[in-house]
Amino acid sequence: MKKQINILWTGGLDSTYRVLELSTQDVTIQPYYLASVNPDTEREIQAIHELTEIILRRPEAKCELHPVKVVYADSIAPDEAITSAWEKLHRASHLGSQYEFIARFAAQNNLVLELGIEKDPHESTIWRCLELNGGAIVKEDYVMANCESEDMRLMFSNMRFPLPLFEMTKQDEIAKYKEWHAEEVLSKIWFCYHPVNGKPCGLCDPCKTYIEVGLGSMIPRKRLILYWLRKNFAEVFQSLRNVKHWVRDLRKKTR
Ligand SMILES: [Zn+2]
Fold first, then answer.
1. How far is the centre of ligand 1, averaged over its atoms, from the C-alpha of 203 (Å)?
2. Residue 19's closest CA among 80, 71, 79, 64?
């Protein structure tokens, strides 16, 4: 029997990277999409369906890639101990609310879930949470939380963060997509929080990140112009503010 890997798939760059990497191996992949109240849920699910078809069509594909199982967060039973552990970790490290229902879902279904997390020590709440709570341990091809404390055990004992993705930046990932000739996959990934007419908005945080790492071609031209104007005007306003402060300081000194 093939090894089965359960993976959280959002249709974004990181989780798709991991599905693509596993697709060349003789394994069974069962993707899960955990849906919270999110304006882009439908668009993400659509992206996952499209990506599944593209990945399975690739000549390199050896895996069995099952259709994604969509689970709505409000259908997951409560678990006071996990929620309380998340609240404590969230207070200290701003751990994202999605990890609370991912932990409940994994525990209640006795699942070990892979989460595609990339190297982002400054922005990632997972990185911060691990850093503040005993760090991580490497086991085979995975990074796992050091679950010595009960809160960390409740939150992370069913989650795995695959290597080498955990140590890669978005730029590293994009280079790999290209090395694997997976441009078609890259063109179908989804990342925007606030799509406009079904297209990336160009202004939300993930859109900005994708533009800055060189994936702006996935965003409509009009939205790119809007991004550019906001970015450049922000700089102009900042420069004017700096000049104003400089003049004020100069006046103080010359009095
Ligand atoms: Zn956006």
1. 5
2. 64
